Amino acid sequence: MTSLGLNLTAQTWVNFDFTVPMDKAELFNANWAEFMNTETGKSLPTCFMSQHEMGAATHNTSISFVSDDVQDMAPLFDYQAIFQNPDFMKMYAWFDMNVEPTRQQTGVRLMGSTAKEGNFYQGFWGIEVADPMATAAAFAELVKDSQPILDELNVEIALHQAMAGQEGAISHYISANFKDYAAFMTASQTMYQSEGFGKFAQATAANRNSLTWTRTNMNAWNLPE
Prior knowledge:
- Helices cover 31% and strands 33% of the residues.
- It is built from seven helices and eight strands, in the order E-H-H-E-E-H-H-E-E-H-E-E-H-H-E.
- The chain has helices at 25-36, 39-42, 79-82, 86-91, 132-153, 181-192, 195-203; strands at residues 12-19, 46-52, 60-67, 100-112, 121-128, 156-164, 172-178, 208-221.
- It has an eight-stranded antiparallel beta barrel.
- The radius of gyration is 18 Å and the shape is globular.
- The termini are close together.
- 27% of the residues are buried.
- Mean pLDDT is 90; it is low at 1-9.
């Protein structure tokens, strides 16, 4: 089985953010786990539950689905079928917990470095991109220049295009997966001081990093064999 650590190599992703009262977090997590173990839940794409850390309210929870086939996401938005499905209806019990949806996003993973396993801490950089083609080319060079460093630190980075639901003028995200918070800090400092990142920063100087946040993966379901 694939590691439970974050390893988002699929092309298409859908992310749902929720504000969960602190005293209801355990109940919410149990409710979602119960749903994902129903026949309905097992038929859905790979799913990750994450707890927000830096840069966002710490009582926010993300439910993220990823798949190589965009058609796999269709059941998440077939509301006629959802409202007739007892598994979904039981899952919606979270609204009795004062859980509130806060953001819904979708996008695609454009490219990334070599996949790594065993990573549970994830960082996101929301980018207002001036030139998408130039940014993609610069990111490809960054991966090429930095792969030895990424291998040494067991880090995976990827470039994503946001399709809907992003904040403000953000058009792309860079994500990176780390073992834990300490690895995030150490690897970030190493990367920022690297020659490859210096070249990337210069090539994308017209871009604006308007939002950065981190989250910890708490659980995963429907992982590929």
